[in-house]
Amino acid sequence: MSLTGAAKLAGVVGWPIAHSLSPRLHAYWLAEYGIDGAFVPLPIRREDLAAALHGLRLAGFKGVNVTVPHKEAAFAIAHMADAPASAAGAANLLLFGNDGRILARNTDSVGLSGHLAESLGVDALRGKTAVLLGAGGAARAAILSLDTLGAAQIRVVNRNRQRAEALAAALQSNVKAKLLAYGLEDWRTAASGGDILVNATSAGMKGNPPLVLGLDPLKKDAVVCDLVYNPLETDLLRTAKAHGHKTVDGLGMLLHQAVPAFEAFFGVTPKVTPGLRSVLEKALGQ
Ligand code: NAP
């Protein structure tokens, strides 16, 4: 639809940004709900982030999504933060208030819990043991999601074991689940009897070799979830399927994390539908 002079404006800041699926995602919903608004890609270098955010706010933007490499810096620039952003020390959403103050939010964890609840059922992980690969930003969000869904124990396994220990120590007071830390060399112990495996490393992403780990220590009916969504079917998911595990891909998390952002920018709560998913699958070349 064409824009009027009163169009609501939002976008996504990152560097680089050309690969981002967010503009297509928001454009789909803007058209679906007939909203007078636009969501644009904003390529912004690290050193320009603060000035660019200031300018976007003055230009009347409602806010921006934030992607690599700006999530921590965006959190630091904001004046206020919601609980998930404070726990993560990172923001994927900034909202510009009329009073000039910036609110940092992090919707990655609600994105993953929404996606897992939709794929597995809201109570599927209650009391269960989760095995989480990675100790970066996505792993932080995954700990909060798995805890929200009632996991009793989350075993954080990372190549750099100290990072896993630091993450578990930093988040333990924010969650009910028991957090345990392991190095990759302890994989078999860490994975033993796991009900769900979540890959929150960047291994297996287009251009990155996959992690080759035996899945046999997991329970036979364990779920395997990969947060990597490009490619949509990672080597990990292919292997898991071949071993009879139920699999959950990373695209749903991306779709669900955008729901609260769209709502905050444009005032409508959008639906994650098969039609939206197929538009993004096409964009990923599936
Ligand atoms: P990050 O902060 O850079 O963390 C990367 C993690 O991957 C670290 O734990 C790192 O281990 C580990 N890693 C990287 N290469 C590895 C390898 N070859 N072997 C073993 N471990 C390796 O990245 P992030 O922001 O957490 O993102 C991680 C992944 O999640 C990315 O693929 C991203 O696309 C995906 N993600 C998806 C969504 C979604 O909506 N689906 C949202 C956010 C992120 P060390 O600590 O040992 O270096």
What is shown here, in short?
The chain is α/β, with parallel strands linked by helices. It folds into 2 domains: 8-106 and 252-283, Leucine Dehydrogenase, chain A, domain 1 (Rossmann fold, 3-Layer(aba) Sandwich), CATH 3.40.50.10860; 111-249, NAD(P)-binding Rossmann-like Domain (Rossmann fold, 3-Layer(aba) Sandwich).
Task: Explain the overall architecture.
This protein has helices at residues 22-32, 49-58, 71-77, 83-88, 108-120, 137-148, 161-171, 187-191, 235-242, 251-266, 274-283, and strands at residues 8-14, 37-43, 63-66, 80-81, 93-96, 102-105, 129-133, 153-158, 178-183, 196-199, 223-226, 246-248. Strand 7 (129-133), helix 6 (137-148) and strand 8 form a beta-alpha-beta unit. The protein is globular. It is α/β, with parallel strands linked by helices and 286 residues long. It contains 11 helices and 12 strands. Bound molecules: NADP nicotinamide-adenine-dinucleotide phosphate. NADP nicotinamide-adenine-dinucleotide phosphate binds at residues 108, 111, 134-139, 158-160, 163, 200-203, 205, 211, 227-229, 250, 253-254, 257.
